[in-house]
Structures are given as C-alpha cells and as structure tokens.
Write a structure and sequence with these properties.
This protein is mostly helical. The protein has helices at residues 7-20, 32-71, 76-86, 92-101, 103-114. The chain starts with 6 loop residues before the first helix and ends with a helix.
Amino acid sequence: MPRSVNHVASRAKRKGIMKMAKGYFGRRKNVWTVAKNAVEKGMLYAYEGRKQKKRNFRSLWIMRINAGARLHGMSYSQFMGAVNKSGIELNRKVLADLAMNNPEAFKAVVDAVKK
C-alpha cells in the first residue's frame, strides 16, 4: 500500500507560520526552519508579555496612588488599609486614574477615608 501524506495540511501549516514571520529580518522571514524557530520564540515572548503587562500596570497604579496619597499626608499602605476598612470599593486602577486625572475627587476619597 502506498504511503499517504497529507500535503494540503502540511503546506497550510507552513504557510501559516511563514505568514506570522512576515516582517522579520533576514532569513527569519523566508527560510522555513529559521522562521519556525523565530515564530515559536515570538509566541513564547507574547505569552509571557501578556502576564508581565498585568504586573507592570499594577505597579504603575500603586506608584500613582502612593504619590497622590503622600500629597495628603498618608503613605500608600496606610491609605489602602483605610480604604479597605471604610468599605470603599474602588480598585487600584480607578484610584490611580482619580489621583492622576481628577485630584479633587481623589482628595474627597482621602477625606472620606480619614474620617
């Protein structure tokens, strides 16, 4: 019995990888083995990057909240502890946005927390 090879599927798989490698420099864009390795590595970096993005934004929000709280005589940890005790349900993203773009509203939150 002759050997059956699905050329259609393997060609489609290669075409997909080569399409992903579009824009790469040198042999990474047009040589199959090099492009395959480059795309696999790129996908790993993309996966890790999606996780790192969340960490980076959380640390940015913490820095902004800390800067806003220190203008009103509190540290970040004191402020967040007081926010949790007072029952205000604003997350770090919203608090950072208030501290950055709407200082009056952030001051109102700080005053409500201090009471």
